[in-house]
Amino acid sequence: MKTSVIIPVWNGATVIGRCLEALFTYAHPPLLEVICVDNASVDDSTQVVIQFPQARLLRQPVNLGFAGGVNVGMAAARGDLFVLLNQDCLVHEGWLTAITNPFRHNPKLGILGGILYNQDGTIDHAGAYISRPEGYGVHETAVANPTAPYPVDYVTGALFAIRRAVWQAIGPLDENFYPGYFEESDYCYRARAQGYEIACAPNVQATHLHSSIEWQKDPIKHNANQHRSRYRFIAKHFTVEEFNNFIVAEEQALCQPDVHPHQTIGRLLALRDTLRELPDVAAGRQHTQAPIPPTTVKRMLQVGFTHLLRRAWAYTQETVQTAAVQETTGETAVSTAESHTTLRTAQNHLQRLQAQEYALLHQIYFRHPQETKPESWVRRVWRLLVLRPLSFLTLRDYLLLSQLNTLHVARLDQLTTRQNLLEAQFQHRLGLLEQRLGLLEQRLGLLETLTDYEYR
Asked: pLDDT tens digit string along 229-243?
C-alpha cells in the first residue's frame, strides 16, 4: 500500500527537523512521498525542511489552518493511504507497517490512529471521544486492546491515517474549523456516516512534543477559537436531544463563579461567529441520528446559540464589573469610615484648642475676642491703663502669653493634620473616580474586542 505522509507546518523550526528525521529513520517499507505544507511560517521552518531533499515542500502565501494545509497536501498526494502528521510528532520504530497492515486486512477501515506518548512517557492519546452534553474532545489514556486495532469515537489529527477512498467519498476536511480543533473529530464522524470504521492501533506509536505555545500569546483568541470549533462540531453532529442538553450544560458552565474572564469572553466571541455561520452549518449538516428538515435545524440552532450569546454577554459584563468592584469595595468602605472618624476627631480637637485660646486672650486683654458689644471709654481706659500694666508688673502677662504660644503651636499642628486628612480624602475620591473610569475602559475594551476580533 503506497503511503503519502502530509505534514502541515507553521512556525515549527524547533521541531520539524526532529519530526522528519524520525519519519525517514523509521520509514520501513519506504514511503511513497512526504509532503510538507508550509502555512506562511515567519520563522526558519522552510529552511529546515529543505535540508531533507526527500520531502516535498509546498509553500502557502497565507496560513490556511490545519485543515486547509492538510487539504492542500491531500490534493497533491499520490498514495493509496494519507497519513496526517503533526510537525511536533516523532514516530517510533515500526509505525508504518503497523499503520498499513490494518487497512490491507479490513476494507471497511476508513481512518486509523495510534498511541501518542508525552515526553515523560505517559500516554497522551489512545483514542478519543466527544463528551456529552458539553461536546468537548477527550483523549483516552488507557489502551483498550494491546494486541489489535480497536474501535474509537475518533482519533487525534496529530497522527491520522485516511484511506484514499474515504477522501474521495466525503471530500476534504472542513476548513471552517479554523485555525484548528475538532476538524479530525468532524472527519471521523463524517466517515462513519458513510459506513467506514474508525480505529486506534496499539502498535502505531509516536511521541507528541506539544510544542505550540501560541495560545499563551493571546489566551482570549485561543479560547474563542476552541469554543468556536466546538460549537461548529455540535451544530453539525448533535441530535436534537443532545443539542438541547448541551444548551443547558453550556449555560451552567457560563455562570460558574470560578470561570476565568478569558473563557467567558472567548465563548462570547465564538457564539457570535457561530451564529454568523449557521446557514452554512445547517445546510451542510452531515450526521444526525434523527434527521430533521434543514429549516428546522437552522431555527433550532439559531434559537439555542442566540440564547447562549445573550447569557454570555450578560455574564461577561457581570464578570468585568464584579472584578473591578471586588478590587476596591472592601478597602474603600474601611478607608472611608476611618477617614471620616479621624477627620471628625481632628475637628473636635481644633475647636477645643480654639476655645482655650479665646479664654487665654480674655485673661490677657481683659476682654473676650468674640465680644461684639461696644466698649465704653471709661472701661477701655481702665483696662488699658490700669489692668494691663498691673498684669505686666506681676508677671502674670508673661505666664499667660507662654500658655498662648503653646496653644498656637498645638493649633497649627492640628490644622496641618486636618489639611493632610482633607488631602487624603480628596485623593481617595480621586481614586474612586479613576476606578470608575477604569471600569468604563474595561467595558469599552470588551466592546473593542467584540468589534475587532475576526478569525478568518
From this structure: 999 999 999 988 999
Peptide bond preceding 146: is omega within 30 degrees of 0, i.e. cis?
no
Residues 203 and 245 in one domain: no
Q: What are the tens digits of pLDDT across the range 41-68?
A: 999 999 999 999 999 999 999 999 999 9
Of 198, 274, 202, whose CA–CA distance to 235 is shortest? Answer: 274
Same domain for 412 and 432, yes or no, is yes
Q: What is the pLDDT of residues 129-177, one digit of tens each?
A: 999 999 999 999 999 999 999 999 999 999 999 999 999 999 999 999 9
Q: Can you list the pairs that 135-140 forms with residues at least 24 positions away whose Cβ atoms lie under 8 Å?
A: 135/230, 135/231, 135/233, 135/234, 135/238, 135/246, 136/230, 137/181, 137/182, 137/185, 137/230
- Pick out the chain residues at pLDDT < 50: 215, 288-290, 324, 326-331, 333-334, 454-456
Domain match, 224 and 170 both: no
Look at residues 205, 11, 173, 209 and name the one whose alpha carbon lies nearest to residue 82: 173
Between CA 361 and CA 353 the distance in angstroms is 12
Contact 159, 126 (CB under 8 A): no
Segments forming the whole domain that contains residue 402: 340-452
Same-domain status, 208 and 222: no
- What is the total count of domains within the chain? 3
Residue 291 φ then ψ, to 5°: -55, 135
Q: Which helix (H) or strand (E) holds 163?
A: strand 159-163
Q: Residue 8: beta bridge partners?
A: 37
pTM: 0.72
